[in-house]
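Thread: "does anyone have the structure for this chain?"

Original post by V.I.:
We have the sequence but no experimental structure in hand. Need at least a predicted one for the grant figures.
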Amino acid sequence: MTTTRRQLGDKGEDLAAAALKKQGYKILERNYHTPLGEIDLIARHQGYLVFIEVKTRKSLRFGRPEEAVTATKQKRLQRLAEYYMKQKRLKEQPLRFDVVAITIQDGGPALEIIKGAF
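Reply from O.Q.:
Generated one for you, C-alpha cells below.
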C-alpha cells in the first residue's frame, strides 16, 4: 500500500471515528490486528458490539466505497469478529457489522454510516 493510500485510509478512519462518536458510538479499538487481518474500528452502540469497516475513496470512478465490501470481505470480517470475541473472552452478545463509506472530493468529505450493513 502506498503512503498516499495509507494516508487516505488513516484520514477516513479519523473522520469515521469522529462521526461515530457524535452518533453515540463508544470506540473500543482502532486498527485491531489479528493473524487473520485487521478490523478498522470496534465499538459499542445501542447494546451492540459493532465491528466497523471504513472505506474511503477520492472519487466514485471505481464505484461507491461501500461496494468494495464484497461477500468475501464480509466473511473475513465475520471471522475476525469471532477471533476478537474469543481473544477478549466475550460471551454471546448482540453483534452488528457497520460500514462507514467516505468519499473525499473537492467539496469536502461525504460520509455515510450504514448500520447492519451485513
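V.I.: this helps a lot. DSSP finds two helices and five strands in the chain.
O.Q.: and Residues 3-114 form a domain with the Trna Endonuclease; Chain: A, domain 1 fold (CATH 3.40.1350.10).
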